[in-house]
Specification:
Elements (H helix, E strand, L loop, with lengths): L1 H22 L3 H4 L13 H32 L17 H29 L8 E8 L2 E6 L4 E4 L3 H4 L8 H4 L2 E5 L4 E7 L4 E5 L4 E5 L5 E5 L5 E7 L11 E7 L1 H13 L20 H8 L1
Parallel strand pairs: 1-5, 4-10
Antiparallel strand pairs: 1-2, 2-3, 5-8, 6-7, 6-9, 9-10
Amino acid sequence: MRSNRRLRWVAIPVAVAISIALAGCTQEELRGFLPGTPGITNHTDRIVGLWTTSWIVLLAVGVLTWGLILWAAIVYRRRKGQTGLPVQMRYNLPVEIFYTIVPLILVLGFFAFTARDQAEIETPNPNPDVNIEVIGKRWAWDFNYIDANVYSAGVQAQDRAKLKDGETISDTLPTLYLPVNKKVDIKIESRDVAHSFWVVDFLYKKDMIPGKTNHMYFIPEKIGTYAGKCAELCGEYHSLMLFQVKVVSQADYDAYIAAQRAAGYEGQLGLEYDPNQNLPGTTGATEGSEG
């Protein structure tokens, strides 16, 4: 009876503290401190849900574990006048089954929900409305608008670092334009070393591996400007390998494409300047050595 009273006096304030903490949560806290706002793409809310649910489950496990540790330390502490060691137990079958089965269920549950959401995110959009090719290069980005046959070439980071009077970094950043509420298929390539294409508020990134093509599939659902960066250490100017994504209306997207075409940026940028073509063992290196 005494131990039950102790547990009750511990459980009540803990429950009250948790309720007060949850009631006072801001939107940022409810999103698990992830960047962005709800509904930026058709995948962001799914990612936030997986993230926050995982943390809630893990926090509950932590509170239970910490509570049991404190409970054992208080209830079974050495009393005044006691000497020697407490009674030793070799094993406790129910407890051992509990701490084997519960972690196994948690791991399988995390795996199942992660696999479900990842499969949804990685499923190609049938008949995409917009096909884009993103090429990472040290240290900038090139964007090919495949359907419109126009391109945008990014200025190297070390050149962008030298700003003119009245110019800001955002004025010189490579900018990818996307129409809102359209199915987008982004083809991801690297022209030199490993990079990683990361639009921060989209809550997803994809590695750019030399010689390998990756894809991202999503629908941008909220008009705005979103920061992007390289998320793979790629050399001296890695920290300046920035870009931005502008999600705009269909009319503004069409106007941008028309402006690129009028400015002479028609055609597609390729991988012909890939320095890996000159590595030993490649056709280019062999021909060069014969010459």
